[in-house]
Give the backbone structure.
Amino acid sequence: MRIDGTTGSQTSLGFNPANANRVATPENGGSDATSTGAQFQPTSDYSSLFGALSRTPQVRQDVIGDVATRLSSGELGTPQARQQTVESILGASPGHS
């Protein structure tokens, strides 16, 4: 079921161009937040969530490109590469190098 209540499949996700310039007014059920004095009020979870987000490492496109090249060339499909991956994830077992 679609959000608007009609049947059928939704063909696009995300931004809806038809609503791009719509302004909320009392006439269409919205309100003008600036005139009513409404402001963003963070919840108690905001600080911890924002902190967790700031600790998330950034995606480095250069590293992703390098890994994609190495994967497509077969360099990372070797038994040695698999062993290094296992050791990296699990930690090297005692007596193994």
